[in-house]
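[Discussion] Sanity-checking designs against the backbone

I'm trying to build intuition for which residues belong where. Below is a structure token string of 98 positions. I'd appreciate it if someone posts a full sequence so I can compare it with mine line by line.
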């Protein structure tokens, strides 16, 4: 999923709300992570907590190299998302979600 950028600044969503979300699908066997680049401010806390899940680009913003998280890294994915001070990361559970 691609989010539009306003210049080089990353901004909050249209409603101004920022919240870490864990969404549940019908099946609990697939965990995915997604970062909203318009919300990410490059604090790097996700990477500090879970470098196996969250990578940083050359400017320090969160990059998800593999959105599907292996089962053994699920707790790290959630911890990294919770560490984000602007709550730009969504952890989604469930097969069949896109």
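Best answer:
Here's mine. Compare freely.
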């Amino acid at each position: 999923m691609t989010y539009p950028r306003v210049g080089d600044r990353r901004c909050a969503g249209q409603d101004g709300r920022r919240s870490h979300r864990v969404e549940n699908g019908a099946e609990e066997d697939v965990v995915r992570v997604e970062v909203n680049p318009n919300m990410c401010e490059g604090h790097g806390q996700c990477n500090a907590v879970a470098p196996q899940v969250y990578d940083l680009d050359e400017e320090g913003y969160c990059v998800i190299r593999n959105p599907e998280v292996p089962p053994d890294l699920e707790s790290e994915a959630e911890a990294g998302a919770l560490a984000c001070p602007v709550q730009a990361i969504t952890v989604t559970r469930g097969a069949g979600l896109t």
